[in-house]
Task: structure prediction
Amino acid sequence: MKPTRLPSPGWFTGGLVTWLLIGLPMMGLGAEWPQYRGPTHDGVSTDRLNTQWSGSVTNPIWRVPVTNCLGSLTVSGGRVFTQTRRSVSGADSEVCVALNAATGVELWATRVGIASYPNGGVGLDDGPRTTPVVDGDSVYVLSSYFNLHRLNATNGATIWTKDLASLYNSVNISYQNAASPVIEAGLIFLNASCQYSNLMAFRTTDGSVAWRKENEGLTHATPTLATIQGVRQVIFATKKGLVSLNPLTGSRLWQTNYPFTYSTSIGVSPVVYQDMVYVCGAHSYGMGSVCFRVSLSNATWSATRLWSTNNPASHWMTPVARDGFLYGHFGIQTSDSTNAQLKCIEMRTGVVKWSINGFGRCVPILMDDHLVSLSEVGQLVLVKPLTNAYTELGRFPAILNYHQDTNKCWNSPAVSDGRLFVRSTAFVAAFDLSVPALKMDAPRFVTPGALDLTIRTVTGALVASNRLAGMEVRATTNHSLALPQWERLTNSLVLTSGVVRMQNVGTGAKKQRFFIVSEPR
Result:
C-alpha cells in the first residue's frame, strides 16, 4: 500500500457508544516532477490517474502560449518551469520561465543564453533544447551553448552562473547541446564537451567541480541515474557507447561500445530496467537500437549485448520500461514523422509485440501503471500497457492547431499531484487527471445497534463508478493494529449520485470502534 494522506479524525457520539471515524484515502503523496523524465529518471509517476477520459477531465485547467522550445517541463513548489526563445534587450535569447501551476500565469523570466540554431531542420519554432532541473528552492538550467545557471525558484534571480565554454573550452556539436543536466545528492551531472575529462559533476552550492572523468564525445542524450546490481550509477550515452560512473566519485563502473557508428545525433536517454540498459539512435543516421545486460561478479562489471537492430529506432523519443518491456515512439523504416509508431518491445529479446501508427515524435510516460502518450499533433492518448495487443482507453486533443513549423509536440509531459502538464513548441497546458481522495461523513445511527456510513470525495467531485469495486471499508476496536488486521466489512457499497453508502453496519456491544475507507493498489 502506498503512502497516504489522512484527514484529521473526528469523534462522534451516539447514545452511550463513542466512535472514531477515519477516512483513509489511498492516494500516493503527489510527487513532484523536478527533472527531465521525472523524480526517478525513468518517466514513471505513481500519482493516481483518472482513467475515465470524458467530460470535464478533457478540458484544460489552463492553456497558455509559451513558444519556441524543444525542451520539456519540470514541476515543483506550485510552479512549472520550462524555457522559451525571446528577444531580450534586442538580443535573440534563451529564457527560463516559471508559470503558476494552478493558473498558468507567468511568474518570472530570466535570460540564460543566446538563441542561435544554424543547422535548421526544425522549423520556425526552433528554440532551447534542454529542460530545467529543480532542487530545493533553486532551478538549474544548462543552455544550448553551455551556460550553467542556478536561479532562485521563487523569483528567478541568478545565484551563480558558470560559462563552461570559457572555463573548460566546451565545444558545441551540430544542433547544439540538448542534454539536460541531472541532479542527485548535491551534484549536477553533465557532459561538458571539453577537450578532456568531460564527464563532470558540479556542486549545486557554488558550481565548483566535484569531479571530472573520461574523454567521451557529447551527444544530445540526457544522462540517466539508476541502480543496477544494487549500485547507484550515472549513465551517459556518448559518441562511442554507454559509460557508467559512480555518481559520488566519477570512477568508472562499466563501459560498452555501440554496435553501430555514431552519426549526427543520439537523443534517447539510456533506459534501465533491472540489469538491462537500452539506447538507440536514428535509423536515418545509420544507427539503431541496442540493449545490454549489465553484470557484477567478483567486484568486476561487464556489459554484454543482448540484441541490436537497425529498426526500430528513433531520434530522441526515449521509451519507458515496464515489467521488462519498452513502450515508446519509433520511426517507420528510415525516417521519423508524424506517423511514427507507438511500439511495445520485449527488452530482453528485442521482439516487437505490437505497433500502432500515427503517434509521431513525442515522448510517453507511465502514470499509475498506464501509458500516457502525447502525439506529435497534440492528441493525448491513454493506453493500457499490455504486451499482447494495443489497448487504447481514451484520447482527447490537448494541444490544438498543429503545424509542422510552428506548433508541434516534440516535448515530454510532466506529472505532479495528479495533474498532467504538456507542451508543444507553441503552448503549455495543464489537465487535472487526479483521483480525488475519499472521506467519510459522520455515521448516521439508524437504530441503537446499527449505523449507515457515507463516503464522498474531499473535493466534492462525484465518486467515479469505476472506483467502487476497489474500495474497502474496515473496522476495528484497536486502531494501532496494521490495516490488514482490521475487519473488512461485507455490507454492500452502493453508489448513488456520486456518493457511496454502506448501510446497516452493526455495532454489537462494542463501545468504541474505528472505521477506515481505503483503496488498496
